[in-house]
Design a protein that fits this description.
The protein has 407 residues and is of the alpha/beta class. The protein folds into two domains: 211 residues, 3-Deoxy-D-manno-octulosonic-acid transferase, N-terminal domain (Rossmann fold, 3-Layer(aba) Sandwich); 178 residues, Glycogen Phosphorylase B (Rossmann fold), CATH 3.40.50. It is built from 18 helices and 14 strands. Strands 3-2-1-4-5-6-7 form a seven-stranded parallel beta sheet, with helices on both faces. Strands 10-11-9-8-12-13-14 form a seven-stranded parallel beta sheet.
Length: 407
C-alpha cells in the first residue's frame, strides 16, 4: 500500500512539474491516450525489454539483436520510462513496437500485461517496477535482468526493503555485471544469479565491425596527428578545458561534443573559444574543415561515436557532478580516457583506472599531467583495445544460459 501510494504521489508530482518543465511535459504527453495506441498482438510471442532511458537501451541492444537473430518470428516490445530515451529511439527498427511504460500502478500493470502477455520479460540494468514484475510473473512470463548492477546502499538492502528483495526472487535469472554483486545478493538469500558481465562491451565492440568513415574528419586529421575528443561535456567540463585550449596547454586538434547541443549552449562555447574553430553543421563539400581549424564543435547528436575513431585521447564529461557518461565508446577505438572525480556509481571507471587506461582528475593541472602521460605512452592504445576485448561476451553467455534453461 505504501509503495502504491508513493507511485501515485510520484505521478501527481510529474503532472505538476509538467507545468514548468519540458521533460516532464513530454513524459505526460507521451502517455496521453496510451491504451488507444497499442498494437494487436493476438497469437504473437511477445518478448518485452524495458529500459529506463537511452543508456539502458544501448546496454540491452546486443541482447535484443541476438534474440531477433535466434527467434526472428518473436514480437519485440521495447518500453522506456524516460522521454530522453523514447524520443531518440521511438522509430528504431530493432523492435516491432516501442512505447512508454505506464506509471506502475496495479491497474496499469494488470492492463499492460493482459494486453501483451509477454512470454519473456527483460529489465535492463535497474528500475525494477514492483507491480509490473508481479503481474508479469503471475501471467507466466519468464523474468530476466540484463547487466544488473547493485550497491549495498540501495533500497533492496535496507530495513524497509523486504518487498523489493522479494521482487528480485521473482526473476528466473539476474545476469549481473560483477562478482561482488553476487556475493551481496547471496547474503540475502537471492541465488538466482549469473555473473555475465556488461553487455555494453559487446555493444561498443560491434562498432569496430562497421568501418564508417567521416569525410570531414578524414580530411581534417593528418596522418598520426593527435586529436583530443571531448565527449558529452557539461559546463563544468568546458570551463576546465576551453582555457587550456585557448592558452595552448592543449595544442592538439580537438573534437568538442557537448552533451547539450541547443543553440544557447553552442553560442556560449563559441564565445569562450579564442582559437580557430568550425561547427559540424556548417561543414559541407563546399566548406570542408580548414587546416588551421583547431576545434570542431559537434553541435548535433549522432556523430560522437564515430568521432572517437579519429581521436588519440578522450575526455568524457559528467564527472564533475551530473554522472559520468560512456567511457567504453572511446576505449574500443584504443583511446585512453580522462574524466572528473565523481565516478563512484560507475564500476567500469575503477576498472579502467586499475588497468592504467584512464585517469580521474580534479583540476586543470591534473588534466595536463594525465594528458601528457597518455600522449607520451607508446603502447596505451594497444593496452586499451586489449582491455576492451577481454570484457566482451556477456550477450553470448546470457543467451546460452536462457536457451539451456529452456531445453
Amino acid at each position: 500500500m505504501l509503495y502504491n501510494f508513493g507511485i501515485r504521489l510520484y505521478g501527481m508530482g510529474i503532472h505538476i512539474a509538467a507545468l514548468f518543465n519540458e521533460k516532464a511535459r513530454r513524459w505526460v504527453a507521451g502517455r496521453r491516450g496510451y491504451w488507444n495506441h497499442l498494437p494487436d498482438v493476438k497469437d504473437q510471442n511477445v518478448v518485452w525489454f524495458h529500459c529506463a532511458s537511452l543508456g539502458e537501451f544501448e546496454q540491452g541492444r546486443p541482447v535484443i539483436e541476438s534474440w531477433k537473430n535466434e527467434f526472428p518470428n518473436d514480437f519485440i516490445l521495447v518500453t522506456f520510462f524516460s522521454p530522453s530515451g523514447y524520443e531518440v529511439k521511438k522509430n528504431d527498427k530493432i523492435a516491432d513496437f516501442i512505447t512508454y511504460l505506464p506509471l506502475d500502478t496495479p491497474g496499469n500493470a494488470r492492463r499492460f500485461i493482459d494486453h501483451f502477455q509477454p512470454k519473456s520479460t527483460f529489465f535492463v540494468k535497474y528500475e525494477f517496477w514492483l507491480n509490473f514484475i508481479r503481474k508479469a510473473k503471475e501471467s507466466g512470463s519468464k523474468l530476466y535482468g540484463i547487466s544488473v548492477l547493485f550497491r549495498s546502499n540501495q533500497r533492496f538492502f535496507k530495513w524497509y526493503g523486504k518487498q523489493f528483495r522479494e521482487a528480485l526472487h521473482s526473476f528466473d535469472c539476474l545476469f549481473l555485471q560483477r562478482e561482488e554483486n553476487q556475493v551481496l545478493l547471496e547474503r540475502y538469500g537471492i541465488n538466482n544469479t549469473v555473473v555475465a558481465g556488461d553487455t555494453r562491451y559487446d555493444r561498443v565492440a560491434d562498432r569496430l565491425e562497421f568501418n564508417v568513415k567521416n569525410r570531414y574528419f578524414e580530411k581534417w586529421r593528418f596522418s598520426n596527428e593527435p586529436v583530443l575528443v571531448i565527449g558529452s561535456s557539461w559546463t563544468d567540463d568546458e570551463a576546465l578545458l576551453i582555457p587550456l585550449i585557448n592558452n595552448n596547454a592543449i595544442s592538439s586538434k580537438v573534437i568538442l561534443a557537448p552533451h547539450e547541443v541547443n543553440k544557447r549552449h553552442i553560442d556560449e562555447i563559441e564565445a569562450l573559444l579564442s582559437v580557430p574553430y568550425q561547427k559540424y553543421t556548417d561543414l559541407s563539400e563546399e566548406n570542408m574543415p580548414q587546416d588551421d581549424t583547431q576545434v570542431i564543435i559537434l553541435d548535433c547528436i549522432g556523430v560522437l561515436a564515430e568521432a572517437y575513431k579519429y581521436g588519440s585521447i578522450a575526455y568524457v564529461g559528467g564527472g564533475f557532478g551530473t554522472g559520468l557518461h560512456n567511457i567504453l565508446e572511446p576505449a574500443v577505438f584504443g583511446l585512453p580516457v580522462i574524466f572528473g572525480p565523481e565516478f563512484k556509481k560507475f564500476p567500469e571507471a575503477f576498472d579502467f583506472i586499475s588497468a592504467g587506461i584512464a585517469n580521474s582528475i580534479m583540476n586543470d593541472v591534473e588534466f595536463v599531467k594525465a594528458y601528457k602521460e597518455f600522449s607520451d605512452s607508446e603502447d596505451i592504445q594497444g593496452l586499451t583495445k586489449t582491455f576492451i576485448k577481454s570484457r566482451v561476451g556477456a550477450t553470448k553467455q546470457i543467451l546460452e544460459t536462457i536457451k539451456k534453461a529452456s531445453d
